[in-house]
Amino acid sequence: MLFRLIRPLVYTLDPENAHRLSIAALKAVSVGAPPRPGPLATEVAGLAFPNPLGMAAGFDKDGEVPDALLGLGFGFAEVGSITPRPQEGNPRPRLFRLTEDRAVINRMGFNNHGGEAAAKRLARRSGRPGIVGINIGANKDSDDRVADYAAMAGLMAPLASYLAVNVSSPNTPGLRALQDEGALAGLLDAVLDARGMNGPPVFLKVAPDLEPADIDAIARIAMDRRLGALIVSNTTISRPPLRSRHAGETGGLSGEPLRDLAQQRLRDFRSATGRALPLVGVGGIACAEDAWARIRAGASLVQLYSAMVYEGPGLARAITRGLEHCMRRDGFASIAAAVGSA
User: Fold this and answer.
1) What residues are labeled active site?
2) 4 pLDDT exceeds 80?
């Protein structure tokens, strides 16, 4: 209710400034403890999640507020993307609200303060409860992007509940080429080696803009390497019909217009993996019914980010309450039992 009252004021701010204000507010306000396991508890990649709803990477790029996000009711938080060296990202403006479409376009470009700063910050939360994934990327001007990912895996493995390898951002030139079969196999081998035998599970975040052959190859490589999960999907460079004056901006589109494409990609990967690999559903999730549809289509976990722009900080608790209702309504005893049931 409070967010709805102040939303018009927030929307007068530049979107990136509004985002920084939200991070500052989460730093300043105590939002409570992480959720406890309950009816929505589930296990994925050996990790016990109190509920299946997570904050996607991109919101907390530098790992500043993961515990505050857990306190909002998220079952897990994914920070990043973090690169070895600090970088400014792309020139501003680079973040756009498409209010009429309940969407966002961003071309941020992995802006962050670098691996060492994030590692020091995340080390301070050692011993605290809650699942915090760390999303890793490569610097834009890197001469060896595979080496960047390997370095980040080694640095962040002791601090992460899981590592998320992001090769699907459209805002770093050439990055999505790492999804190609030969490049991806070498990249994942380097990451897994740097992570170490006893390191956290590795998740792979993929783009929605993939051809069937790409999907089959990625699925095969992920299963061969025994990854913890596939995160399906990142933002899209495609453009469905949009009403906003910002519709022509370059960058990755997220929010409601991505929902159907992301849901279809999830089904595609569910088929390609033969249900042998957990999937994390992302893209266009804004309510409990969206999250439930993604779970029934094959997602063991779900994530959101853009919907927070329109619904505010109470969204996580609203969705988890709704998921309990959906689970009871449709006769499932657990989230795991519902995965892929549609």
Assistant:
1) 169
2) no
